[in-house]
Amino acid sequence: MRRYLIGVCLALVAVAVQAQAPAKPPPKVLKYAFPIAETGFDPSQLSDIYSRTVTAHIFEALYAYDHLARPVKLKPLVAVALPEASPDFRTFTIRIRPGIHFADDAAFKGARRELVAEDFVYSFKRFADPALKAPGWATFEDVGFIGLKALREKALASKKPFDYDAPVEGLRALNRYTLQLRTEQPRPRLLETVLAGSDLYGALAREVVEHYGDKLMAHPVGTGPFQLKNWRRSSQIVLEKNPGYRERFYESEPAADDAEGQALLARFKGRRLPMVDRVEIAIIEEVQPRWLSFVNAEKDFLERVPPEFIASALPNGRVAPNLAKRGIQGLRVVGSDATLTTFNMDHPIVGGLAPEKVALRRAISLAIDVDREIRLVRRGQAIPAQSPVVPHTTGYSADFKTEMGDHDPARAMALLDMYGYLDRDGDGWRELPDGQPLTLVRNTQPDNQSRQLDELWQKNMAAVGLRVEFKTAKWPENLKSARGGNFMIWGVGSSASRPDGQNALQRLYGPATGGQNLSRFNDPEFNALYERMQAMPDGPERLDLFAQAKRIAVAYMPYKNHAHRLLTDLTQPWLIGYRRPLFWQDWWQFVDIDNSKRPQQ
């Protein structure tokens, strides 16, 4: 009995102590939605921005962009300092900070795995592995690490697995923490080309790749601030703060006259990163449900307000009074991106460099009413594009004017008549020069904006006598078809990943076919010009080459560049610290959630 009473008393004391202990604060959860489904999370396999947004928070590159600096500035992330470059810009030595670890994973068999220089050697080699068909291989081929292309060609010729153990002169770990990179030609911009950007160029551990094999897309393991917790393909992506993430603090160098940047720095300087505990991303492709999920406070952030709702969100450029009253903020910038129509240059109807094929593509371009597209479909949230090069990048000029921006149906019809695209049977539709039927097939997506664009496309083509059909599929499926060359025409968007505009020109570079070059355009003159630009330092001579490249793009029209979008984001009052990145995808670690302001569910 005595023991029983003592036990009861101890239990009551424990309950009382527990009642007096402060309650654990609720986790800080960032919630928002992607408008397009992801494809997976193996950096070597990615070209879509949504998958890359996720991988940018899981993996870490050697360098990162300063989150607040405008103009942009690169700084070490896992490296100790900026690269030591040789005078000829062909040898780069980089020291990695000791004590950085990968997130815990079964692939490491209970051991804590440190990041070492060899991890970058291995990760960069993966882009060269023919079996992976990496979209980013063209970038590495451009860079020209000594011996890497030869190792790839050996695997192709022998039809044997890529030899990851073979030494490559241009990719060497001099010791545990020192990486040496050597290129065949001078590469003055190597730092921003493949050394920064955690979405694609972060380090993977070889043990993880070998452990998960063909399931790697679902098992990303990096050294970054977040790790993948749950993934329901095309439905929901959940990440949680990496519990083993090293001590890293909010630091930045915004310009002295940057009031917004200075205010964010003053608020967050010295805070440990990341500040949120969990990120939940839903895939909501239809614009109305995505808009309502934000308005109903189910989501904390609305990235790229759909044009259909821009008048409701920001009438006359200001946050609507009903939203402002709730503390919702709006942020708008001209994006470093472009929307474009891609023509398959290998297709027998729209492809090729023969004069009649060039004339067809240019006629289609002239028939497209971009101004109407901007006014009606994009609700004024874009500016016309004149070339492949996008705002905020080297080579872009707001004063540059070309046929790319023209809408001239009369000239389009004259071109078609001149090159034999005539209506021979009087049914209202033009035939091919040889008299065979002519039907344009445009790949598209099953979302509201795509349907509006398709309707406008159909009207524009009908106005010049061109029949068009639409082939509808999900975006990842269309991307797969485009990368394989199994399409005729596709409308797509593209965003810059670095400050140098040459990255946009890679879409026309022959060796990038199957990767960034979805059009499969391959012109020796353009290829030679592109390669000259790679080795040339910034300056007037290189800008002249940009102008030549842009004119070639307009002359052959493998892409019709439509517009550069105005990007408007909305944030709830409990999401603090958001600032749209220009060329990078990682930002979750730099924001905070104030749960006291979040409505109780």
What features would you describe in this structure?
This protein is an alpha+beta fold. Among the domains are: 59-212, Dipeptide-binding Protein, domain 1 (Alpha-Beta Complex), CATH 3.90.76; 341-561, Dipeptide-binding Protein, domain 3, CATH 3.10.105. The chain has 20 helices and 20 strands. The chain has helices at 2-20, 49-55, 117-126, 137-143, 148-158, 190-194, 198-201, 206-212, 259-268, 287-295, 310-313, 321-324, 355-367, 370-377, 409-418, 448-462, 475-483, 502-505, 524-535, 540-556, and strands at 29-34, 63-65, 74-76, 84-85, 91-95, 171-175, 178-182, 226-232, 236-241, 278-283, 301-302, 329-334, 337-343, 382-384, 439-444, 467-472, 489-495, 559-571, 575-576, 592-593. Strand 8 (226-232) and strand 9 form a beta hairpin. The longest helix is centred in the N-terminal third of the chain and has 19 residues, at 2-20. The model has no long low-confidence stretch (mean pLDDT 93).
Features:
601 residues, alpha+beta, Dipeptide-binding Protein, domain 1, 8-stranded mixed sheet, 20 helices, globular
Question: What would a concise description of this structure say?
Answer:
By secondary structure, the chain is an alpha+beta fold. Helix content is 31%, strand content 17%.
- Report the CATH architecture of the domain at 341-561: Roll
Sequence stretches where pLDDT stays below 50 over 5 or more residues = none
At the first level of CATH, the class of the domain at 341-561 is: Alpha Beta
The percentage of residues in β strands lies in 15-25%
The CATH topology label of the domain at 341-561 is Dipeptide-binding Protein, domain 3
